[in-house]
Amino acid sequence: MDRRQRKTRKAIYDAFTGLLKKRPYARITVQDIIDAADVGRTTFYAHFETKDDLLTTLCAEIFDHVFSEDLRKEKTHDFSSEHNTGAMITHVLYHLQEHMEYLPGILSGQSDEIFMDSFKEHLRGLFSHAAAAVDSPVPRDYMMNHMVCDFAETVRWWTRHPSYSPEEISSFFLQTTPLLD
Amino acid sequence: MDRRQRKTRKAIYDAFTGLLKKRPYARITVQDIIDAADVGRTTFYAHFETKDDLLTTLCAEIFDHVFSEDLRKEKTHDFSSEHNTGAMITHVLYHLQEHMEYLPGILSGQSDEIFMDSFKEHLRGLFSHAAAAVDSPVPRDYMMNHMVCDFAETVRWWTRHPSYSPEEISSFFLQTTPLLD
DNA sequence: TTGATACCAAACACCATGTTCGGTGCGATT
DNA sequence: AATCGCACCGAACATGGTGTTTGGTATCAA
Questions:
Q1: Could you tell me the pTM of the whole model?
Q2: Protein residue closest via CA to C1' of D10
Q3: Which pLDDT tens digit goes with each residue over B7-18?
């Protein structure tokens, strides 16, 4: 890829995350971004179809990182198939913490769906084994939704109380959701 | 209040809820509403400041109904202070069910915050006693958020699976949230 | 009957979005 | 070193939705 492309792409990303630290996604215009990134309007739209597309791409990069394969390879076993849910959760939280400064900008406002939908999709993958293991008259789909939303809302709460550590948050989650493990 | 005002107000409400049954809030324009209601643009803005204001007012009416005093007076005791959480929840679900046709239009898309924020506010009132009773190292605020989001997401799930009865939904909720009662 | 006020259509200013245009300069290939 | 391609640029534009203004009409209540 062209060096110029990489430069402007990075400039746009940096401008975007920088703005997200100051105000929520909904109150950021494309004009704000291209002003902050110091690129032309045409250039922005050459890289991203819309503002939502930019956010979607950013979210994809975050999740690519948070749910990266090394999450499983780092340790010697597959988290989701064995009963190490606690460690897995803490791991995910650690990775999420690196993006903590601008997560509130994505999670509040009307943009939360773009983030949340993708986030929950990934979480379904992580929790699928655990949900399948539960024997209950409650529909499996409800159970899945329960676990996933529970964790997603835990993360949202965390962004409002960022002083807690990943271990503490993980502990809160597991104590209020005794269905896992 | 003037008869004319009541008439146009009702026309706007009906048009709005009618449209919400067809497509989500985000894809409804003010023009759509005034066309469906057959009122002038000026008239709409004489009644509501913005489209969000209309939704906020609608939500307020829903909650005024769902969390009405007769919820407590109908029975001979205060739900929230005694341990009749199950009955209380079922009661709320029954009332919500009456608005089921257009709830998906409010809960999907980017409008869910207007509904959810107010909904959660009311739920906090209902759950405050229950949350206070729990003795746990988990912060009270986290606990509260957990219960409230749990129920709110249960309702959201219900709108996607509306064939279940209030009793069933209530049962699902209580089984996955053993913290109540 | 009269005064107030709710209503109306039409036009408007505004703002953000996404596109189109003609032109400039970097960067790689020969 | 010459050149071709393409990333970039600013400026202008079309689009679409919002909320306001204007001047006039119809209804209600006294």
A1: 0.91
A2: A40
A3: 999 999 999 999
Phi-psi category of residue B159: left, alpha or beta, with phi > 0 → left and psi -120 to 50 → alpha = alpha
Confidence (pLDDT) at B78: 47
Q: For chain B, which residues make up each domain, given as ranges? A: 50-176
Q: Which is more confidently placed, B157 or A70?
A: B157
Model confidence over A137-165: pLDDT tens digits? Answer: 999 999 999 999 999 999 999 999 999 99
* Averaged pLDDT, B101-105: 97
Cα B123 to the center of its chain, rounded Å: 10
- Cβ of A178 within 8 Å of Cβ of B176? The answer is no
Contact status, residue B147 vs residue B130, Cβ threshold 8 Å: yes
C-alpha to C-alpha distance for B125 and B118, rounded to whole angstroms: 11
What does DSSP assign to residue A76?
Answer: S
> B153 and A145: CB-CB below 8 Å?
yes
Residue A109 above 80 pLDDT? no
Q: What whole-number distance in Å separates Cα of residue B1 and Cα of residue A154?
A: 46
Phi, psi of B71 (to 5 degrees): -60, -35
Chain B contact probe: residue of A135, A145, A167, A168 with most B CBs at under 10 A: A145
Q: Which residues 31-70 on A are within 7 A of strand C at the CB atom? A: 31, 41-42, 45, 49-52
Which contiguous run of DSSP H or E holds residue B142?
helix B140-160
Determine the pLDDT at residue B75: 53
The 10 Å Cβ neighbour count of residue A160 is 11
Mean pLDDT over each residue of chain B, to the nearest integer? 91
Tell me the two tokens of residue B42.
């000026």
Cα–Cα dist B146/B142, whole Å: 6
Task: Determine the Cα angle at A26 with ends A170 and B27, to 5°.
Answer: 105
* Residue B164 contacts residue B158 (beta carbons within 8 Å): yes
